Amino acid sequence: MRPFLMKLFKVVSAIIIVLLTVFLILIHNFFQPKSSEEISFDFKESSKEVYISNKDIDGKTIRILASQFEIDTLKPTVVLVHGSPGSGMDFKKYLQDTELSKKANLITYDRVGYNFGSNDELLPIRSEVQILEQLISELSASKTIIVGYSYGGPIALGVKSEYKEVILCAPAVIAEVEPMFWFLSFYKWRATKWLVPEMLQTASKEKLGHASDLRSMEQNWGANPSKIKTIHGDKDWIVPYENALELQQIFPKDQFELKTLKGASHDLIWSRFEEVKEELLKSIEA
């Protein structure tokens, strides 16, 4: 190889290594769960306080984020269940919203396996449902609205008692339409697994086992006694819109409502915040 080409090759290789290193650092920092102190600081910057507490459930410490110090029993309570990867901070904008917090108590939490500073292993959906049921056991069921986003959808749908409403945002609830993505190989291959941030490793592990886990649950979806509302984008390629159409076939018309967001993808809880908020307010005020 000519000296010029050799020098060019070394320069290009060095640039690629530097860019890859910076990219990996940014990815790791982005997906690193935030400490309670960092979360409090984030909210103070927006002049909105968040109330953080911990609750021990079945030997797991669950971190809870709330928009209020104590539950106002005169108001409905909205319990938000995040997807994968994710945390309670996925619903930061909802907790900060003045109109929502005036009309309802707002609560979210970090699911087991995604909680900050914990090495807890992921739980099957059935166990996640039990965690949720215990978390909300002291709330008035007739005033409680459960919202499940993405992989939080089957957890919300799996509850056995009747609540004011269950709202599913882009829920991944049907195993048959669960897509598998090529980039999951980075987690499966030993040579590249170390490149994947810890939270994405957790998410990859959940993704790889989710379809089989769903098959043990989905025959019982119709047993949920609550009113069900599904909000789904028709351009969602991560959790296909077919999930919503399948649910529409499972539940009777007087129990189920489908709200289709035209052109929306899987990020709808952020990108279509106002429309999702509008549906939440309808449920709160019903």
UniProtKB/TrEMBL annotation:
Q: Record's InterPro entries?
A: AB_hydrolase_1 (IPR000073), AB_hydrolase_fold (IPR029058)
Keywords annotated in UniProt: Hydrolase, Membrane, Transmembrane, Transmembrane helix
Q: Which ranges does the record mark as transmembrane?
A: 12-31
Q: Which GO terms describe its molecular function?
A: hydrolase activity
Where the record annotates domain AB hydrolase-1, the positions are: 78-276
**Protein name according to UniProt:** Alpha/beta hydrolase
Taxonomic source organism:
Urechidicola vernalis
